[in-house]
Every structure is written in structure tokens, then in C-alpha cells.
Amino acid sequence: MITLPSRILATTVASLMLAGAAFAQTPTPAAPAAPATKAEPAKTAPAKMAAPKEKAERTAASLECSKQADAKGLHGKERKKFRSECKKTAGKPN
After folding, report:
1. pLDDT at 2
2. Which of 31, 38, 50, 91 could be cross-linked to 64 through a Cys-Cys bond (beta carbons 3.0 to 4.6 Å apart)?
3. CB 68 within 8 Å of CB 86
4. What pTM did the predictor assign?
């Protein structure tokens, strides 16, 4: 015959096992995040197509300013300041 404390213990163990499953967290669904991500590139795509030549010119000026900063041995804040001023003058040497 099963005693009362054994029944209580068995009931408690079974309750804890079921409670663990009830309180387990479920992962958030990925579906709501996907449409927001897909909508953003559509907004920026026309802007990229509108001025590809300008972007190439800016990149060339940026590269030229980087080369000049390397030649001068600039690092950190001085390099950042130099490149900023250099890009304003379109990469022309000072």
C-alpha cells in the first residue's frame, strides 16, 4: 500500500514537471521582423541608382585623402580632422 507522503511527493514532482513546461519561454516569431527589413532596401534603392557617378567621385576623393594622410603619418583625431578638411576641398593637396 502506498503511504500518504509518497502520494504527496509523487504529486509534487509531477506538478513541477508540468509547471516547467508551462513557464518555458517561446522564441519570438521572426516573421514580423522580415517584412520591415525587406521594406527598407526598397526605399534606399532608388537613391543609389540616382547618383552612381557622384558616389564614385566621393570615393576617389576619400581614397586620395587617405593616401595623403598615410603619407603624413597621421593617426587618430588628427587623421580624422585632416580627412574631413581634405574631402571638403575634393582631395586637392594643401
Report:
1. 72
2. 91
3. yes
4. 0.38
